[in-house]
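FORM 12-B: Structure-to-Sequence Request
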């Protein structure tokens, strides 16, 4: 496993108890790092629903294959509009390096909208290979993405998405 990107979505609304918080992952992406610069390109059309989150517990069988496919299709066509916006791009630079953490600042282009993005990545690992991990919280409305609603808004997604990065530090030159 060189790099892994997971995405977490959260439900809200009057009937939210019949909906699910979800864990997804991005299948097609590239991340390159050199001389303190980082460039990432993700294909939002390759985002796949892994399963349901129940608090901190992941349940891969919380949704059947048909429901996972339906949710994924809705996300690609109605939420992310991947035909109009086939790439998500981050361009940034390491602004500070310490033994246990790395500060990154840059710009995220999502849904055709560019916004500054800064985050702290933690170093972890052993002799088998050093990893860099981070959790980044995004607000979809900052990028022109309307929160998805169902049943006349009784179920909707929060205006919060958490992106979890697990990256190979050596492959990024960190």
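FORM 12-B RESPONSE
SEQUENCE OUT:
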């Amino acid at each position: 496993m060189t790099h892994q990107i997971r995405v977490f979505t959260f439900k809200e609304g009057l009937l939210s108890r019949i909906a699910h918080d979800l864990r997804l992952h991005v299948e097609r992406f590239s991340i390159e790092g050199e001389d303190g610069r980082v460039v990432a390109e993700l294909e939002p059309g390759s985002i796949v629903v892994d399963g349901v989150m129940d608090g901190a517990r992941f349940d891969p069988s919380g949704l059947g294959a048909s429901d996972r496919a339906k949710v994924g299709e809705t996300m690609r066509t109605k939420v992310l509009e991947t035909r109009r916006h086939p790439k998500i791009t981050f361009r940034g630079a390491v602004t500070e390096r310490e033994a246990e953490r790395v500060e990154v600042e840059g710009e995220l282009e999502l849904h055709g909208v560019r916004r500054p993005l800064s985050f702290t990545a933690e170093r972890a690992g052993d002799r088998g290979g050093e990893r860099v991990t981070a959790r980044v919280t995004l607000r979809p409305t900052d990028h022109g993405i309307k929160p998805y609603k169902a049943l006349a808004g009784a179920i909707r997604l929060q205006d919060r998405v958490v992106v979890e990065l697990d990256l190979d530090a050596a492959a990024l030159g960190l």
